[in-house]
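thought: fold this chain, then report.
action: predict
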Amino acid sequence: MKTVRHDFKGQDLAYAGKTKHGTNVYLNKAFFAEADVKILTGEIRFHCYAGYGGGRKSVLPGVCGEETIRHDHTMILNSQAKKGVLSGNPIHEDMIEAAKLAKVDFILNVVTNSKGEIVKAFAGDLEQAFYEGVKLVDETYRISVDRRADVVVVGAGGYPADSSLYGAYEAVDSALRVVKRGGLIILAAECREGYGNQTFYDWMVKFKNLKDIERKIKRKFAFGGQTAYHLMKALQKVKIILVSAMPDYYATDIFRLKTARAVNDALNEAFNIAGKKAKVWVMPYGNLTLPEVKTSG
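observation:
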């Protein structure tokens, strides 16, 4: 069996067509033009802007060229491109179309628990198997709360999910769903590998406001920049206190976060800001769970 390592910046690509969102789909030639059978593998879980990981994501961005990925990812600016949303999500729609253009034959995807153990596998049709997996993710990890909190303490799920600030941001994205505007998020993430993505770092240094990042995304998206965009957007709504091994210089001066040595210290600071009677939610696995405020009716 031949093994090929895909290079999204490489030239060994084949054109498969254009999506309704105007994305020219360039695919790895060995995958698209040479493979007799195309099988996708992956894990279905919540994803910051594609709605859910797994399924079609193994094609786009998985085996696509740089132009294709850039055009698709400019749609992170769309209000429907968010965690747990597929209906009307242009990034999801784009990915599905790309996978169909790739003529995928079969998928094998799994849903895992907090220990990384397989809970259930889903195999078969590109869309049908993926949507069945999505149902299980929703049943397992979508959680309702009665109101927004003043403070949300969120863990990124431990290693490897919290190995860098770049990866740990997924937990912040979940916490934002149930914190009040002007509230506080305490992120507990080791970040043993620091910030984790150079573009994420560079954009936080270069761009001082959200409008500048939005213009950059529209003009020339770079992978990693989406997390700078999401973090800066989050900081317009809440204060974030990071408890990690990351040096304060990076956390405060570059990524504009408050820091604390321990979660208790962060909580004391949060109570000083929000008041001793502040409502607190705790999310140990913010990388997996998606909380939502119950709607009446």
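thought: worth noting. The mean pLDDT is 95.
final: tokens above.
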